[in-house]
Amino acid sequence: GIQVEQSPPDLILQEGANSTLRCNFSDSVNNLQWFHQNPWGQLINLFYIPSGTKQNGRLSATTVATERYSLLYISSSQTTDSGVYFCAVASNFGNEKLTFGTGTRLTIIP
Amino acid sequence: DSGVTQTPKHLITATGQRVTLRCSPRSGDLSVYWYQQSLDQGLQFLIQYYNGEERAKGNILERFSAQQFPDLHSELNLSSLELGDSALYFCASSVSADTQYFGPGTRLTVL
């Protein structure tokens, strides 16, 4: 099946800093989503982005499908950005199931 | 709020028991997906239903089963529970093969 790798596994930043999270995947995809899992365990949709670039406030994402990677940018970090960020993909050659990466744990220090 | 509801939020039970987790998808969404999040396996796809029919199966144990009812809500049944079944179980829904919206999850603890 499709493989999803996220880096870095852990990131500790001061409030106000910017960060870039990376997601590499091993096959063509027809779905790529970024999620934020908050400390209460809830999975919050950030972006549906199988290709191209999107922005939502301080967050933006870019997927280069031909090179099989996606980047999530967080600018001017706030403590509420802390949590685990997951990338999940669905392969072009499979069904609609999402395969998740192992996540990046982001800790924002005040 | 994603619009997907799951009940109960927490469930504590003993080994060997059977439990039922319930999911109501967003209004209009025909697809329901179940995922399991455990410390050792991460987030894994279990099963998908589309308009009442099973569409895809993932790493779902034989002790687990699911169904989707005519009103499109879904239930995940877990039986002969083992300690290793303790996990966060998520339901997600989508209207088509794009954005999946996740519910708040049911945290299952097997003692």
Give a description of the structure:
The complex is a heterodimer of chains A (110) and B (111). Chain A starts with a strand and ends with a strand. The model of chain A has no long low-confidence stretch (mean pLDDT 95). Chain A has strands at residues 4-7, 10-14, 19-25, 29-37, 43-48, 52-56, 59-64, 69-74, 83-91, 99-100, 104-109. The relative contact order of chain A is 0.35. By secondary structure, chain A is mainly beta. Chain A is globular, with a radius of gyration of 13 Å. Helices cover 0% and strands 59% of the residues of chain A. Chain B has 111 residues and is mainly beta. Chain B is built from no helices and 11 strands. Chain B has strands spanning 5-7, 10-13, 19-24, 31-38, 42-50, 53-57, 64-68, 74-78, 87-94, 101-102, 106-110. The radius of gyration of chain B is 13 Å and the shape is globular. Chains A and B meet through strand 4, strand 5, strand 9 and strand 10 of A and strand 4, strand 5, strand 9 and strand 10 of B.
